[in-house]
Design brief:
Chain lengths: ~325, ~725
Amino acid sequence: MKQFSYLTADSFEAASKALTDSGNAVVKAAGTDLLDLLKERIVEPDEVVNLLRVEQASGTGVVSALATLADVAADTAIAEDYPALHKSAAVAATPAVRNFATVGGNLCQHTRCWYFRNESFPCFKRGSAICPPLEKGGQNRYNAVFSHERCASAHPSNLAPALIALGAKVRCVHPEGGRTLSVEELYREPRNGRIGDTVLRKGELIRSVHLEPSALTRNSTYLEFRERHSFDFALVSVAAAVRLEGSKVAEARIVLGAVAPIPYRAKQAEQALTGKALNAETAQAAAEAALAGAQPLSQNAYKVPIAKTLIRRALMELSS
Amino acid sequence: MSKKKLRLGFEGKEKTVDVQVPDGTPDPWGTDAKLDVVGKDHTRVDGVLKVTGRAKYSYDVHPEAMIFAKLLRSPHAHARVVRVDLSRAKALKGVLYTEGQEGTVVHYPGQHVAGVAAETEEILDDALRLIHVEYEVLPHVVTVDAARAEGAPPVLERRNKNVFRERGRGDGDLDATEAAHKQADVVLERTYTTQIQTHSALETHGCVCEWKDGELTIWASTQGTFSVRDSMARALDVPQKKVRTITEHMGGGFGAKFGIRYWDRFCAKAAQMTGRPVRYLLDRKEEHLVGGNRPDSRQVCKFSAKKDGTLMGADVRSWGTAGTSARAAGVFNPGIYKFRATYKETYNVLTNTTEGRAFRAPRYPQGVFALEGMLDEIAEEIGMDPLELRKKNDVHSVRLAQYEVGAKQIGWERRNERPGSGKGPLKRGIGMASGLWHHTGRRGSAVRCRVDREGSVTLSNGAQDIGTGTRTILAVLGAEELGLQPQDITVRLGNTDDPPGPASGGSTTASTLGPAARDAAWQAKQVIREAVADARGGDAGKLDFKRGKVVGAPKDLSFQQACGLLGEAVETLGRWHKGRNYPRFEEKVAGCQFAEVEVDVETGHVQVLKIVAVQDCGRVIDPLLARSQINGGVIQGLSYALYEDRVMDPGTGDMLNANLLDYKIAGSREMPEIVSIPFTVSNGINSVGMSGLGEPPTVPTAGAIANAVHNAIGARVRSLPITPDRVLQALGVI
């Protein structure tokens, strides 16, 4: 990796200011994603700003951006009120990674696309005109099946689909003023020459995640499918939350991970379910609706039936 | 020579043969040998060193003032190196040595084009990026299909084609095979494919080199200490006596670590030029790119059989690539079973990828996967139990016995009579496959046994223990002869100043050094016997060494007391004696494995629940160690069956998954219950009756798992690895 100077910030504000003022500084929380990018020279900052020493946000319904995935997984209140969040944190990566990786880092991590992660390949996000997985002969088994017009990266976050399904918000810090965004608003389609997937401005940092418990959030779940249970990123993940009134679905939120460049909200599936009884038949219909618009690439058609299976299984888990 | 009776075989199947035992060597052990130490569980003599981190690997060697070396590698699969500008790298502070390969042509991604040695790894990394290389990019092919296509660019300039037929003695007879097909009731033609597997040893390739007074010491991660010494001496044009290799402990080798490679040579050169010790151990990306790999295969199989299960013809045409090497990409298929006639055509296909290397049972796992799949397909076609079909066509007496052991252990009767008939989305199935390997052991090695007057015993040899437990095996055999326990024996391995030993290839190390160690300890025992008889009276030939004591003299002595009667320390040199007069019980080593899997037919996920591995390795010296070795073979075979796959990008010609996240190796949660059953056979191959165990247990695993998947889901996946994608395709879901 290229040599850089290292600054440990004592507050979010100071970190944000340092990042805003610097030419190409990057922020580091646990560094689980950043270290790989530095080693591969996907990012070559002159300065790295360490966040791990700042004071963390706390309170009811507040999850610090610097909480570890293990912290989240161990929180019994989260498990009770937000099962989808609990499960997404509890199954992520490996125990070693969960003990260190943070909530904010999980939301802001970069795609695992193997073209993106190796500087010797062209990549749309890194400024190339093409996205190799979309080209003839491109190796796209792990890439997106939705929204891949210009970039076929698959979004790797476990927490993002869960938090979107739960209607969570993030509180952000920036020298020009803080703001609150829904997690859904946090993401935008890939841009040429921009490696990140969020709307965060230069120097803007997520301080905390905010949740409100409800019948919807309590009846939520998260499932992911991966090739290797020991250590892998999900091939497909699904977060679902359903509010039942009597036997009917009053509200449903279904979000898929690893199928599009950013978390993919399956609105057609949500609509297909709303007002219906939740049973094997309607769950299957919702799964079909969710994947109806999928456009698999040459090597990833298998993601479609897996996604349908996960949606159906997740909904059936929420039906009783 | 003296004439002796030797009992060979295993429980329930034994025979007695007459053998001529050379003078001055121990009598061979038969099934009736009374042994105190051999055949009992012993923990590894170096186990504590390893788990406490005190064992010294090449990575742990840091001579004072050591610097670092690395090669710059081509991102192109095929290119002419027009210009290499080293000036900016040379100007960087801390850079001590550089070289460039201007004017060469690179034929695979990762081929070196320049090299640097520098004070720190960080400076090295920066220096390599300051080297400017101008390439003239040439057309490339990185897959067998692309290389075989009409109009494909030639991979090597000096050869005008990419596909080369390999002929061998076992190619068989096409006319006879077609005639056999004609007489058969069923003829099946199927295509099986296997992927490229990289060696991915935990300890990467490389070494640390230090010159002192004109002599070179190489701490190498190698399977062949002597081949490293000899090839380095040749490469640098210095006498072998000026070069020493040290490999005290080894972090894994599966066939790609023999002799020196270019980076070792560069390391030694940089050490020579800078006068500093230099370290070059490959990083993980380099290891994947250039370390080595098992060639892939496409096997077009045409097999036939009679309705009663008699195998008739087997015709196999195979294509595979060992990268820029036009050899060794063949498969072991057909084999194991008796066919009326067989025929094979083997094609080695050149591609612009790094050279294939021998990989744990070269040619076997890939061939057996297809062969055993075909056997299952025939069984299904004629409505016969797959195990019965194998028994009917197998003539190996050991394997026939192993079938019973394995079938009982897995519960063969629990398998789905109709494949795929289990209820619900999670379907279980059971399958099996067989294995075969050669008896091993070679002449040309010697083990030194030194016993001093305090009774300390040291066995030494210059070869390496690559993690298989050779050190422990020698201790067990020495202890047996001298009436001691393994921990009483010091075993020194991995320094070429000690007597010559084999390279660890073909499962030969333990089976070469083991009998030599026994021979050396036995000779030392004769000297001690004489000393005791001289001093205390009695018949030297009747003195017995048991449980730390020497008995049979007028008064019992401890081993230490007996050694105190020696005039001076005794040193003997034991050898491996070819058992010319010892007929082998069977010509080959047999094994079979049974797998039980659970497949989620809605996601394609395969979980292996249990593997039963029954494996012959001749006499089992240490069953605990043998089970550990079998477990390792099964784990690597499972990983090959379900996960590992080198992925090349056809566009750029570079490797996409040169890391341990995207190149997927099975981890702890992928592991099934493994029941490893060393099946002991007293074999006349040498005085101990032992054979190798490194390679055989990885041969049947993929075939057994694939057959179990078929039994679970009723659809056959004919390509490795068996990914969710391929399972769903086989099921017709996509």
